[in-house]
Write a structure and sequence with these properties.
The structure is a single chain. By secondary structure, this protein is mainly alpha-helical. It has one domain: Heme oxygenase-like (Heme Oxygenase, Chain A, Up-down Bundle), CATH 1.20.910. It has 14 helices and no strands. Helix 3 runs parallel beside helix 13. It is globular, with a radius of gyration of 19 Å. The structure holds pyrroloquinoline quinone. Pyrroloquinoline quinone binds next to helix 11.
């Protein structure tokens, strides 16, 4: 049993004598130590080190929550994020297809229903509700659904998520969904901030987020139980932490792309959404 590895306690260059000039990540620390963390310590590492890298800290989200984005910038966010939303049930179907366990599949398929709709409470599903959000921001839904006007980096990041769950172990595929541990925090900040700071945004426009507040904790708890059970060697534990980091990178890269294109320096890739297109 070892204590959780956090961004605050992993060894610095000076302490380790590492000549490369970079700190070891918590995943490298686990691999290097070669000692199995307890399930509780692994969970703590995932929660702490994952949250440190979560997109909640990205300047684009900070601007959004501060009420400092223009309507056009909000539109760009919704349009690009649609690509991620639309890919989620596809990546979950890939994960389903990789499991031999009916019990796992029964639990995991709820995620597909949440996004595609069709299940009792969630008749419409998250994708439709995301389109409602885009429409509420003044976008044409056909344009959003075409995905043609998303930034190149958005498409690459979304494809990276699909590739990750297709090519990795099932453990890594499941661990990559663990950013959902933190999404209720992001949503809990975002929704009241948007309602308070953007007068054209209504509760109806933000209907997407409400069911996520109970769906995400249900999904994250299931995934966390599996990851802590399946990661029964130090290498597998490190793989799980790296999977979560890779997913944080995907979310971060999408916001980097938005920031570069629509905030600073404002270089919009050829063919991508231009605010004037929406006027
Ligand atoms: O609003 C957010 O910040 C946010 C973040 C994430 C996430 O952390 O991946 C998801 C969602 N929302 C979300 O709505 C969602 O359905 C979702 C599914 C997944 C996933 O990886 O399976 N992440 C997220």
């Amino acid at each position: 049993m070892t204590e959780a590895v956090t961004a605050r306690n992993f060894h610095s260059v000076a302490e380790t004598g590492n000549q490369s000039g970079v700190e070891l990540s918590p995943a490298d620390e686990i691999r290097k130590a070669g000692r199995l963390l307890s399930p509780a310590a692994l969970e703590q590492t995932l929660r702490t080190a994952g949250f440190d890298r979560y997109h909640i800290h990205h300047p684009f989200h900070k601007l959004m929550n501060a009420g400092e984005l223009t309507r056009a910038q909000m539109q760009a966010w919704a349009l690009n994020r649609y690509c991620y939303q639309a890919a989620i049930p596809k990546k979950d179907a890939i994960i389903l297809s990789r499991s031999e366990d009916p019990e796992f599949r029964r639990e995991w398929r709820k995620r597909i229903v949440d996004h595609d709709g069709g299940g009792g409470e969630e008749k419409d599903g998250g994708i439709k509700r995301w389109l409602k959000l885009a429409e509420g921001l003044g976008l044409d839904t056909g344009m959003v659904m075409s995905r043609k006007y998303a930034l190149p980096a958005t498409r690459f990041a979304v494809q990276a998520y699909i590739d990750l769950v297709s090519r990795s172990s099932l453990l890594v595929a499941v661990a990559s969904s663990l950013t959902e541990l933190f999404s209720p925090v992001a949503i809990g900040e975002r929704v009241p901030a948007m309602l308070a700071r953007y007068d054209y945004i209504t509760e109806d426009t933000l209907a997407y987020f409400k069911p996520r507040l109970h769906q995400a904790p249900r999904d994250a708890e299931h995934a966390l139980d599996l990851v802590t059970l399946w990661a029964d060697t130090p290498d597998k534990q490190a793989d799980a932490v790296e999977a979560l980091f890779a997913k944080c990178d995907i979310l971060w890269a999408m916001l980097d792309a938005l920031h570069f294109a629509y905030v600073n320096p404002g270089m919009i890739a050829p063919g991508a959404f231009r605010p004037a297109d929406a006027e």
